[in-house]
Design goal:
The complex is a heterodimer.
Chain A (H helix, E strand, L loop, with lengths): L1 H38 L2 E9 L2 E12 L2 E8 L6 E5 L2 E6 L2 E7 L11 H10 E11 L2 E10 L6 E7 L5 E7 L5 E12 L6 H5 L3 H5 L24 E3 L7 E8 L8 E7 L4 E8 L9 E5 L2 E8 L2 E7 L3 H9 L1 E3 L2
Antiparallel strand pairs in A: 1-2, 1-11, 2-3, 3-4, 4-5, 5-6, 7-8, 8-9, 9-10, 10-11, 12-19, 13-14, 14-15, 15-18, 16-17, 17-18
Chain B lengths: L1 H8 L5 H13 L1 H18 L4 E2 L2 H11 L17 H22 L6 H10 L4 H15 L3 H6 L5 H10 L1
Helix pairs in contact in B: 1-3, 2-3, 2-5, 3-5, 4-5, 7-9
The chains are: A alpha+beta, B mainly alpha.
């Protein structure tokens, strides 16, 4: 009998160990993904599906001495394009490329920090879900199931050789797909067309070395890394969301600076934007949803407050309800 | 309570249960708030465009503005049914109708219904482009950008073409 109890205990320990091992290996895969996404040269066509729509786009990513270059262009419908380099983002708008966001000079949001990984571990149950074939490559499937219904389930398919993310899905607690990305064709490494850089209308890209950045003036909103304490708080963030930063930033189309407070649980970020209510009639309160991102905005305490995050609608509304000004 | 509202919206409640629930919603503020929130979420799930918060409130107000129709009643009918219950049922039917329409049919088939929907939540280009700015400002700090890089920006790439 005693032996049996001992054996039972042993089995439990081994099972717990196995789970801890599986969880660790899922987290290791994520680290690989975050590394590979920045360091790998690749070009391919991917499908983005959300709500009832499907969009096809081409993505090209490569690393040069000047840093990472990335271009995403839509393949159906009117021409749409996003170019990213060194914390700067340009978008094709009115027949020209316009700089729309810049974190120049500020270190990029760090790749999955250890603290983020531990957040993930405590908020989600991690499971390896076998090897599947995506875009002709073998991929390790990993599932992260949240421990509450305030966030979405994440499923990832990671290329076993390169560590590139081949497919990613966001699911509800009822296992319905909220949005998903999947490569349908992908070339990893090899000869990747970089000629568009030289032909680009963006001077920063044509210079290609990345050293001339400081000399180019731009009217785009510039984010300064000034962390502040605005006195605004979200009194009841869901468990596991940690404040990542709080800053005052200029924003496109806004005259006054906007306060942005960012929280993250490792997978999902939630931003709270606070700005003075300028009485604009167009600032209708409401909930807006785009794939996994939900936006809720409304005037409260004489300010226009906007909550944006990759969390279910009820979660952004709850967070909104808990926003207060202390002091 | 919330489960019951959800069941009612899905037409899964029995008649007397729904009556009781509607009565409760009509009387209790908290109940009405839940009711509105569930409809808002339902609307967003069925229709990805910008949704106003107070859709059901608006429907209720519109219904109050509607002229009263005096229809002959069945003799011996229960006159104790209060007008409140009737108007609550009517607003439920109206909201249900709008949600159902957006699910079931394309706008081409019923142009006048489509117009009505536009009245309920007018397309607001400025709001959309503003939402886009928030999305953009948020995206750079999202862990998902770290995992799939520029692919996460596709949300905004799509968006540009619709909003502008």
């Amino acid at each position: 009998m005693r032996l049996l109890a001992l054996l039972g205990g042993l089995v439990l320990v081994v099972a717990a160990d196995a789970y801890a091992g599986e969880k660790q290996s899922c987290l290791d895969w994520l680290k690989t993904v975050a590394f590979a996404a920045h360091q790998t040269d690749y070009t391919g066509v991917f499908i983005y599906q959300y709500d009832n729509r499907v969009e096809t786009s081409r993505i090209t990513h490569f690393v040069e001495a000047g840093g990472e270059y990335e271009k995403v262009e839509s393949l159906d419908g009117p021409k749409r394009e996003i170019v990213r380099h060194h914390g700067q983002v340009w978008s094709y708008h009115n027949h020209k490329m316009v700089e729309i966001d810049s974190h120049k000079g500020q270190s990029k949001f760090p790749s999955l920090l250890p603290s983020q990984l531990s957040l993930l571990g405590s908020n989600y149950q991690a499971k390896l879900a076998g090897i599947e074939r995506i875009a002709g490559y073998d991929a390790q499937a990993i599932v992260f199931q949240p421990k509450d219904s305030l966030r979405y389930t994440r499923k990832f398919w990671v290329h076993t050789d390169s560590g590139l993310l081949l497919k990613a899905a966001v699911l509800t607690d009822k296992n319905q797909v909220v949005e998903q990305y999947a490569f349908s064709q992908l070339q990893i490494g090899g000869k990747i067309d970089r000629s568009w850089l030289m032909k680009s209308a963006i001077p920063e890209l044509r210079s290609k070395s990345g050293h001339h950045h400081g000399s180019i003036s731009s009217s785009s909103p510039r984010v300064h890394a000034g962390t502040i304490n605005s006195g605004w708080v979200a009194a009841s963030m869901p468990v596991g969301f940690k404040k990542i930063m709080e800053m005052q930033r200029p924003m496109h189309g806004n005259h006054a600076p906007v306060i942005q407070i960012v929280f993250s649980d490792g997978f999902s970020a939630v931003s709270i934007f606070i700005e003075p209510d300028d009485g604009d009639e167009d600032d209708v309160e409401g909930l807006y949803s785009r794939g996994a991102v939900n936006i809720f905005h409304k005037v409260a305490y004489g300010h226009l407050i906007t909550v944006v995050g990759e969390v279910p609608p009820l979660t952004v509304m709850r967070i909104f309800d808990s926003v207060r000004h202390n002091g | 309570m919330n489960m019951e509202i959800s069941a009612l919206m899905d037409g899964e409640l029995l008649e007397d249960e729904s009556e009781k629930l509607l009565d409760h919603i009509g009387r209790v503020d908290e109940g009405r708030k839940d009711w509105e929130m569930y409809h808002l979420i339902g609307d967003v799930l069925h229709q990805p465009d910008h949704i106003h918060c107070d859709l059901s409130a608006k429907v209720r107000v519109r219904l109050q503005d509607e002229p009263v129709v005096f229809a002959p009643r069945k003799r011996g009918g229960n006159h104790k049914f209060s007008a409140v219950a009737l108007s609550a049922a009517a607003s439920l039917a109206a909201v249900g109708m709008v949600v159902w329409m957006s699910q079931q049919i394309g706008s081409e088939a019923f142009p006048q219904m489509a117009m009505q929907q536009n009245l309920l939540h007018p397309a607001n280009v400025k709001i959309q482009s503003k939402s886009n700015d928030y999305l953009m400002a948020h995206q750079e700090f999202s862990p998902s950008t770290d995992m799939n890089g520029g692919a996460s920006y596709i949300r905004m790439v799509n968006y540009e073409s619709e909003g502008r």
